[in-house]
Amino acid sequence: MVGLFASLVAAAHAESPAERGRYLAAVGDCVACHTVPGGTPFAGGRAIETPFGPIIAPNLTPDRASGLGTWSDADFLGAMKRGVRPDGARLYPACPYVYFSTVRDEDLLAIRAFLATLAPVANPARGTEFGFPFNLRPLMVFWDALYFRPTPFMPDPSRSAEWNRGAYLVAGLGHCGACHGAKGALGANRAPGALDGGRVRGWFAPDLGGDPRAGLGGWSLDDIERYLATGSNGRALAAGPMAEVVENSTARMTAADLRAIALYLKQDAPLSPPGRGPSAAPNDNLGAAIYADACAACHRASGEGVPGLFPRLAGSAVVQSARPDTLITVVLHGSRAAATNAAPTGPAMPGLGWRLDDASAAAVLTYIRSAWGNEAAPVSGDAVRRGR
């Protein structure tokens, strides 16, 4: 089985290392962090928000003064797999080296070969705006000792080569757990490898497990593939940070790799019917009235939405997530869905924070999370205030 997995990977990427690296850099969504919106791709300078403050993504072009122009292959692998720069300074785990440590050297060096083909761009911007003591980079040695266990990917011989390919992409270059894994106080995943949902810049990256109510248990393989390829599948629209992932990464992946990811995510999903979630507050008149006035025209009185334009709310895993952060953000601030070649519309929702106070927003969100058979905990005014 291990040999079959390796053969499948080799056959899928028989082109030159640089061309294969171009594809793998898209799988890793490297451009999202290392590009200022509207700026030169991979030239760095973008501020990445973390719970500890912003961190500035470095320049990945082959500029000798401010980029990777003087790095050796060993230097690149040291940063990607061990989180250590050539000067010995340790990276913060905002760079997902924890996940990249599972990736094969030849795949990482293919990405390096692609980056070496870029035009050099002088952009020395990098650093953090962390407060004390998080601004003391040498302390990362203790974080690594506590939470980082570099482990190469080992195919599961009891699974198919396709399943193993999906596992390799999700756990490694895809670094799905960086967003979809619950984090502890110091930013490490509470359960390594788990995809149980996590907070990301005011959004909640949902549970990717088999929960039929709040996870992917109700999604088919085709649902997952279509969502990753287009940002829309009739059940949900990719918005917020996930819209960037779809536009820059998954929409550029091969159908075979998307199928492998879907198979990996669905392989162990339970087949039992949806269970009951946390008890929701009664559907009070205020929440129902606000929904009818402000939401029903697009999302329909039935909560069924319009496929490809306005996401379905009835039975939605996002609506029934353990945390309502995504719903709060969308209702208060609005959002724009992913726009891809296969689904170029990229519909948007305007924010309603200007017309809804905290109590009103909490009422309509609680209604949405408990109507049409949805079962999720009520939303408090305090949670809305924090989201605002």
Give a concise summary.
This protein is 37% helix and 6% strand. The protein is mostly helical and 388 residues long.
- Number of structurally distinct domains: 3
**Main beta-sheet annotation:** 3 strands, antiparallel
**DSSP strand content:** 5-15%
What is the terminal separation in angstroms? 51 Å
* Total helical elements: 17
Overall shape = globular
Please, what is the average pLDDT?
Answer: 89
Order of helix and strand elements from N to C terminus: HHHEEHHHEHHHEEHHHHHHEEHH
Instruction: Give the low-pLDDT segments.
Output: 270-283
Strands of the largest sheet, in order across it? 1-2-3
Task: Please give the number of β-strands.
Answer: 7
> Which structural class should the secondary elements be placed in?
mainly alpha
Rg value:
22 Å
- Report helical residue fraction: 25-40%
What do these coordinates show?
- This protein has three domains: 15-147, no CATH class; 161-266, Cytochrome Bc1 Complex, Chain D, domain 2 (Orthogonal Bundle), CATH 1.10.760; 285-387, Cytochrome c-like domain (Cytochrome Bc1 Complex, Chain D, domain 2, Orthogonal Bundle), CATH 1.10.760.10.
- Helix content is 37%, strand content 6%.
- The chain has 17 helices and seven strands.
- A three-stranded antiparallel beta sheet has the order 1-2-3, with no helix packed on it.
- Helix 8 (161-171) packs across helix 12, helix 13 (285-294) crosses helix 16 (358-368) and helix 16 (358-368) crosses helix 17.
- The longest helix is centred in the C-terminal third of the chain and has 12 residues, at 255-266.
